[in-house]
Amino acid sequence: MRYVEPVFRPPSEANSYLLAVTDGCSHNKCTYCAMYITKRFSVRPQEQVFEDIAMASELMPETRRVFLLDGDAMTISAAKLMPILERLRASFPNLQRVSSYVNAISVNNKTDEELVALRELGLTLGYIGLETGDAIVNDRIVKGATIDEQVTAVQRAQAAGIKMSVMTLLGMGGRDRTREHAVATGEVLSRMDPRYISCLCVTPVPGTPLHEQVESGEFEMITPEETLDELELLLEHTLVSGAVFRSNHASNYLPLGGRLPADRERLIATVQAARRGETPLKPEYLRGL
Ligand code: SF4
After folding, report:
1. Closest Cα to atom 2, ligand 1: which residue?
2. Could you read off the pLDDT of 193-235 as tens digits, one per residue?
3. Given the CA of residue 71, which atom of ligand 1 is nearest to it?
4. CA neighbor of 249 nearest in space, from 100, 129, 90
5. Is the CB of 204 inside a 6 Å radius of any atom of ligand 1?
6. Which residue of 138, 169, 188, 228 could cross-link 133, Cys pair, CB 3.0 to 4.6 Å?
7. Ligand 1 centre from 116 Cα, in Å?
8. pTM, two decimal places
């Protein structure tokens, strides 16, 4: 219950108890990310985490979902994460799901047995920011993990039974890599085969390296209409076995949602209709960022 502001969580965790097990992000170098630039990364002492769980279990005993803060709770060793998950199970009898943002390197640093043990203790969902499948763009944005490392992390987590939600960013390749970015992102999503996919639109936030690159002209943003071209290409190249697809974040110009592969044609047709002007795009002033 003790937080270091600002605190972030995925939209789908709006009703979750947010438990701070770390503060900040252990990487904290992605050029587009402003989430934790004001925070120094640290792992919370276990006693403090246990005290927070005890407080929350008194105030919110019906808690069903818990989201572990901040940017990469999986950076904590399995030996330290497991007692936290055990304490959550013991404290919340109705607990159905524990989730967190995850970093590919942190997942890959765990053994298959550790990933299975974490899932058995309730960690059943991880959110990972792929952003791009294009290796050149991935290097430019200082993601801190290669594309292959990210694919491996998602595949290994899912093999252990941890469902993965993969986030991507339309426009992350700028104008010079727009096509490569969209096609490669769809192809990498296909290799990952996650259960959830979300497509947001890149937004340069003041204070980030990306914002400076935009200001200096080093990075050229694509237009709202061009995000539709990327979205269509990405959908065409995303061949997954079964995933919920969402492109309805506040940053998106065209809110979309459905299941892949079942709704692919409908989703693509909706994008094409918007490009023909049949569906108005969200005006800038309505985009909540
Ligand atoms: S790993 Fe995630 S939280 Fe950390 S800097 Fe990159 S995008 Fe931000």
Report:
1. 71
2. 999 999 999 999 999 999 999 999 999 999 999 999 999 999 9
3. 3
4. 129
5. no
6. 188
7. 25
8. 0.95
> How far, in Å, are 173, 209, 210, 221, 223 from residue 215 at the CA level?
16, 10, 9, 10, 16
The encoded tokens of residue 276 equal 């023909």
The string of pLDDT tens digits covering residues 144-200 is: 999 999 999 999 999 999 999 999 999 999 999 999 999 999 999 999 999 999 999
- Contact 7/18 with Cβ under 8 angstroms? yes
For ligand 1, the distance from its centroid to the CA atom of residue 103, given in whole angstroms, is 8
Q: Which of 266, 190, 280 is nearest to 234 (CA)?
A: 190
For residues 167 and 130, is the Cβ–Cβ distance under 8 A? yes
Q: Is the CB of 71 under 6 A from ligand 1?
A: yes
- Answer CATH for 12-279 from 2.102.10.10, 3.30.70.360, 3.40.50.300, 3.20.20.70: 3.20.20.70
148: Cβ–Cβ under 8 A, 6 or more apart, which residues? none
- What whole-number distance in Å separates Cα of residue 16 and Cα of residue 134? 33
Distance 41 CA to ligand 1 centre (A): 12
Q: Is the CB of 28 under 6 A from ligand 1?
A: yes
Q: Evaluate: CB of 208 within 6 angstroms of ligand 1.
A: no
Question: 25: Cβ below 6 Å to ligand 1?
Answer: yes
Q: Residue 129: CB within 6 Å of ligand 1? A: yes
Collapsing DSSP to helix, strand or coil, 174 comes out as coil
